[in-house]
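Quick one, tokens below. Sequence please?
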């Protein structure tokens, strides 16, 4: 499946196809870029997929420099970005050169930041290897590193020239990492496309079994949905906020717990449960809509209950979020599957109530 992201002179293709990484060389060649390339990855991913990618690039005539960054979130620092800039300078990459990111969202974010700033911006290619990166982080052009004050605070918009998604790379992911990525897939269905959501519902078991055809169809469908949003709102001025469904509460849970307790996808799953119940409490959605969301999340192995929470700390984290405006927290809610609505005036008492309910245990009328 090829998804075209139409952004005028910044348009690009997302190619979703098993084995597509082996064709990166000729595909990059076809874009008419210079012959120097830097392949940014972490050692674990490089061991799995680095050879395939480097061989394809070299056969197509590229001079490839390998740039290693640390695994996971620790790659997203100014010190690592600086090491990358140094490596690009040393390999004499110029304005026509290309930076490729092979890995998860962390590699993509730091490599994209480096590509967007090196010589005021060079060609960038995303080769995402986690489900999260495939359906979310690799398209859209948001890049970032972290700051002591918070995650993703320093960055630039820099669209890739090409995104190659090999859905089979998901097969080497640890189980928890794999399931975590499915949260963004469920999210896309809930707020953007009822038919797609129904396909995810029907495909839950095949997805968990990492069936090749299912992965290709579902991951590809999610790329298409994200691309549609990015096309309509490249700079995240309003519509793109729809992708924040489950994230208002999810990010606050992550921040309030010091990022160690849940994976991002688990926190987003809890966030979607909370926000579905919030919509129900506000009379925006019915209980059926909430339960359908809960059922599919449970079916793909994502949590519905958070356990004990410091509710006030979660609320405080929510108002500190960079998307909060003047202390007011805007929510994306879903009136029914496939639709969304922005709601900016949610009373704190209602948020408190759903956070309370998220803890589970006796008194939670939702289970
Ligand atoms: N730019 C955006 O629009 C955007 C959107 C969402 C998330 N993000 C960012 O993405 C990051 C999270 O990304 P992530 O969830 O992909 O995690 P990650 O990039 O931190 O990678 C997680 C781990 O998985 C390993 N890994 C990657 N692919 C593998 C594979 N195929 N097989 C086995 N192991 C593999 C990596 O080595 C790493 O240890 C966060 O920093 C987040 O801020 C960015
Ligand atoms: Zn997310």
């Amino acid at each position: 499946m090829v998804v075209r992201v139409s952004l005028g002179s910044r348009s690009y293709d997302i190619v979703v196809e098993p084995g597509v990484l082996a064709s990166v060389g000729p595909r990059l060649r076809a874009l008419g870029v210079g012959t120097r390339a830097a392949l940014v990855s972490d050692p674990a991913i490089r061991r799995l997929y680095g050879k395939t990618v480097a061989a394809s690039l070299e056969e197509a005539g590229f001079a490839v420099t390998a740039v290693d960054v640390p695994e996971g979130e620790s790659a997203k620092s100014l010190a690592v970005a600086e090491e990358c800039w140094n490596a690009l300078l040393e390999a004499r990459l110029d304005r026509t050169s290309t930076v490729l990111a092979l890995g998860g969202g962390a590699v993509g974010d730091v490599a994209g930041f480096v590509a967007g700033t090196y010589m005021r911006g060079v060609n960038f290619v995303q080769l995402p290897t986690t489900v999260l990166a495939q359906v979310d982080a690799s398209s859209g052009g948001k890049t970032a590193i972290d700051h002591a004050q918070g995650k993703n605070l320093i960055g630039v918009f820099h669209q890739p020239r090409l995104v190659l998604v090999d859905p089979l790379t998901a097969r080497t992911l640890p189980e928890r990492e794999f399931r975590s990525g499915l949260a963004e897939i469920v999210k896309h269905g809930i707020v953007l496309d009822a038919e797609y959501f129904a396909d995810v519902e029907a495909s839950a078991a095949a997805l968990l079994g990492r069936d090749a055809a299912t992965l290709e169809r579902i991951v590809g469908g999610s790329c298409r949905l994200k691309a549609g949003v990015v096309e309509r709102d490249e700079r995240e001025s309003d519509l793109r906020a729809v992708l924040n469904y489950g994230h208002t509460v999810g990010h606050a849970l992550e921040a309030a717990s010091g990022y160690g307790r849940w994976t991002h996808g688990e926190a987003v799953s809890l966030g979607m449960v909370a926000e579905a119940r919030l919509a129900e409490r506000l009379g925006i959605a019915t209980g059926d809509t909430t339960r359908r969301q809960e059922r599919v999340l449970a079916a793909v192995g994502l949590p519905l209950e958070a356990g004990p929470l410091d509710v006030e700390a979660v609320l405080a984290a929510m108002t500190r979020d960079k998307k909060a405006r003047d202390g007011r927290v805007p929510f994306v809610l879903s009136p029914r599957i496939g639709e969304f609505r922005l709601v900016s005036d949610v009373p704190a008492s209602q948020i408190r109530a759903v956070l309370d309910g998220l803890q589970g245990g006796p008194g939670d009328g939702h289970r």
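The pocket of zinc ion (ligand 2) is lined by residues 136, 184, 247, 264, 268 (CB under 6 Å). The first helix runs from residue 24 to 29.
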